[in-house]
């Protein structure tokens, strides 16, 4: 099995969205550079951010997200973001009415079922878990190996927390990587076992 990584861009005070579920400037770093990050040409980052992000993205086989994120993004129009092969959606509800059953999205009930499905689909590749409530639940359940944060220089003051509603302390190792890009600080921590 590949490793499990909890990931998102995050404000300096720990939020992945504001009170209105909006990311504000959290993704501005993806368009603040000159190096194309993907084939679309829309995403351009610094060379440092490219080297760090592209290498990580190329390892991802599956992304796990909650139904809330799925609904906010309109299911990415049935195409997994960033060229990912599959998305596993944690939900208590069925796929939306009219959803294309051939789209590489898998709707499962509960974090354990989501992780089992994601690991089956990912094989040796990385299972990425979107930060927020589902990511926090997976961290609390001991299912996360690594935490990656793209820390953006903005303070939201309130909103949706990176670790969701996690109430207990969880130790991370010292950072394995700390890299400064344009308008972003890339951090990578292993979860202490």
TrEMBL record:
<feature type="domain" description="Bacterial bifunctional deaminase-reductase C-terminal">
    <location>
        <begin position="111"/>
        <end position="170"/>
    </location>
</feature>
<protein>
    <submittedName>
        <fullName>Dihydrofolate reductase family protein</fullName>
    </submittedName>
</protein>
<dbReference type="Pfam" id="PF01872">
    <property type="entry name" value="RibD_C"/>
</dbReference>
<dbReference type="InterPro" id="IPR002734">
    <property type="entry name" value="RibDG_C"/>
</dbReference>
<dbReference type="InterPro" id="IPR024072">
    <property type="entry name" value="DHFR-like_dom_sf"/>
</dbReference>
